[in-house]
């Protein structure tokens, strides 16, 4: 049984297309729910808070499935939501005729809030990019788990326009068309970047991050659902978004837990400490043997750390409720 088949034997996936915060855009969203093992368990479903998973630049919603599949039954008993940023994954396909030449990270935050409103979510747990959304609407989330977050103080970060942006220019130079998924897999595994990924994450990237295309001569290829120009403009747009997110962390009145890669080139220990210090209720943990793409490289360890934090968070909440009654 393949990893994907095994995952879908345990979780039901309902796919939705919902309006984005900008009316001309649509968001592709997956809702995952654990399949009950019996009629009894189905009728006694615990009141687990909903969890929203948001992906990083260049990826897509399904990339979270290896993590979700490894989380404890306690924390996957409720509904879980993962959606594609408006210019990524299936959302990029839906919006291909209205994609813009610029990107604003606040639009991602607004779209997170749109998902919350569309599904009527209360006290949701956020995993991934969610700092700006909570800052824009305090009380949206009960807690945030940030995975090696790309947030920097303005004093440490300079972000040039696309024509001078190093990451943006590297993205524009990347290959984005292959004969088929087998060739794409072979070519990607020649890169150190993709070699570090867990095999399940890579297969999900090939399955859901690429789409089939028919050329004018009738030949077929596969290409990125998220056009590489769209990924590049996201890198060029991070200046305001990442510094604003850092600055606004001190506005949050909920726990913020950072899970960072011990070998991350984005989050050295001193910077993680700086981010934690920005939070009213901040904490952090490092996962050994991984870099910036923590959840893609180490889904088991990421799932364990998410659940470990949520266990502590739930225990603290219970203690607070007990104290309030005394």
Automatic annotation (TrEMBL):
Top-rank taxon: Eukaryota
Domain AB hydrolase-1 intervals: 51-304
InterPro entries in UniProt: AB_hydrolase_1, AB_hydrolase_fold, Carboxylesterase_BioH
Pfam (any one): Abhydrolase_6
Protein name: AB hydrolase-1 domain-containing protein
Species per Swiss-Prot/TrEMBL record: Mortierella alpina
Lineage, broadest ranks: Eukaryota, Fungi, Fungi incertae sedis, Mucoromycota, Mortierellomycotina
């Amino acid at each position: 049984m393949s990893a994907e088949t095994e995952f879908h034997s345990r979780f039901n996936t309902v796919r939705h297309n919902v309006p984005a915060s900008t009316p001309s855009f649509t968001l592709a969203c997956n809702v995952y729910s654990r399949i009950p093992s019996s009629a009894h368990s189905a009728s006694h479903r615990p009141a687990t808070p909903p969890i929203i998973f948001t992906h990083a630049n260049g990826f897509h919603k399904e990339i979270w499935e290896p993590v979700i599949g490894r989380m404890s039954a306690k924390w996957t008993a409720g509904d879980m939501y993962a959606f594609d940023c408006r210019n990524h994954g299936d959302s990029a396909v839906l919006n291909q005729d209205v994609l813009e030449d610029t990107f604003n990270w606040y639009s991602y935050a607004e779209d997170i809030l749109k998902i919350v409103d569309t599904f009527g979510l209360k006290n949701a747990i956020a995993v991934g990019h969610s700092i700006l959304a909570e800052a824009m609407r305090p009380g949206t989330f009960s807690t945030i788990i940030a995975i090696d977050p790309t947030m920097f103080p303005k004093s440490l970060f300079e972000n040039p326009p696309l024509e001078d942006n190093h990451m943006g220019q590297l993205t524009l130079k990347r290959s984005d068309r292959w004969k088929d998924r087998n060739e794409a897999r072979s070519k990607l595994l020649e890169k150190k970047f993709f070699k570090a990924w867990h095999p399940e994450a890579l297969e999900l990237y090939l399955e859901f991050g690429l789409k089939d295309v028919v050329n004018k001569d009738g030949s077929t290829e596969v290409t990125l659902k998220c056009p590489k120009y769209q990924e590049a403009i996201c890198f060029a747009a991070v200046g305001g978004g990442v510094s604003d997110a850092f600055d606004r962390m001190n506005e949050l009145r909920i726990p913020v837990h950072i899970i960072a890669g011990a070998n991350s080139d984005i989050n050295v220990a001193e910077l993680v400490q700086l981010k934690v210090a920005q939070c009213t209720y901040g904490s952090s943990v490092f996962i050994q043997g991984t870099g910036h793409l923590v959840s893609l490289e180490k889904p088991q360890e990421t799932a364990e750390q998410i659940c470990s934090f949520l266990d502590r968070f739930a225990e603290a909440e219970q203690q607070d409720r007990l104290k309030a009654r005394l």
